[in-house]
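[Automated response] Your request has been received and processed.

Submitted sequence:
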Amino acid sequence: MKRNKYIIGNWKMNGDKSSIKVVNTINKSLQRKRYNSKIVICPPFTVLDFYSRSLKRSKISFGSQDCHHEESGAYTGCVSSKMIKDIGAKYSIIGHSERRQYQNESISEISNKIISALKENLKVIFCIGEQDSEIKVRTKILRKQINSLPAKIDTNKIILAYEPVWAIGTGKTPSLGDINSIHQNIRKIISKKFNPKIGKGISILYGGSVNPKNASDILNLDNVDGALVGGASLKARDFCKIIDSYN
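Generated structure:
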C-alpha cells in the first residue's frame, strides 16, 4: 500500500508577517521541481490566516499547532477546529510533547481534540513519543498514546509523528536502526489496534532534531514517511535542503 509522504514545519512560538520571506523562498524552490511529498507549514495562530490567504494557490499547505475540542464557547485564548478550517488551513498538530508537558494535556483531552479536528475535515498530525530512551517502557508509552485515536480512523486524515522527547531540540537522535525499528513497531501497534490495512496505510513521520545533515539518511528509511521539522523549518535554505533530500 502506497503511503503519503510529508515534510511538515512546526514553527512553534516563532515567526511573524515578515517571515513571509521565508515561506516565499520555499514556495519559489518548490516551483522549480516536481515533488512527491506534501509540504506543510504550521506557523503561530497570529499569522496562520495571513499565510493561508497569501499563499492560497501555492504548493505549501498550512496548519495550526493546536486546536480546542469545542466548536465555540467561553474558552478564553483558545481556537477551535472550525475557526482553523474557516481561514483555509488544512492541518492541525495535536498532542505535541511540549503541550503535554507545559499545558498538561491529558490523553482524553487530546482524543477530544482529534475528534473535533476530524469533524471539521482537518488532517491531524498526531504526535507521540517517549520522555527518555529507555527501551523497556517505550512500547507501553506509545501504545497508551495511540489509544488516544478514535475507534475508526481514515489513513488519509491521520498522520502520526514520532518524536522521542529526549531528542527534541537537543541535537541528539536515535540511531538509524532504532528509528526504523521504532516506526515499524508503531505500525504493528496500529495494526493490532485497528487492522493490518490501517497499519500499512498510515503515514508515520519522524521528528526530533531533523536537519539538512541527517535528513536524507532518516527520510530514506523503509518505515519513515516524512519529517516533522522544528528549528530548521524557520530557515528557508535548510528546509528546502530537507525537502530536496526526500524527493
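Summary generated for your ticket: The first helix runs from residue 20 to 31. The beta strands are 6-10, 38-42, 60-64, 91-94, 123-128, 158-162, 203-207, 226-229.
If you did not submit this request, please reply to this message.
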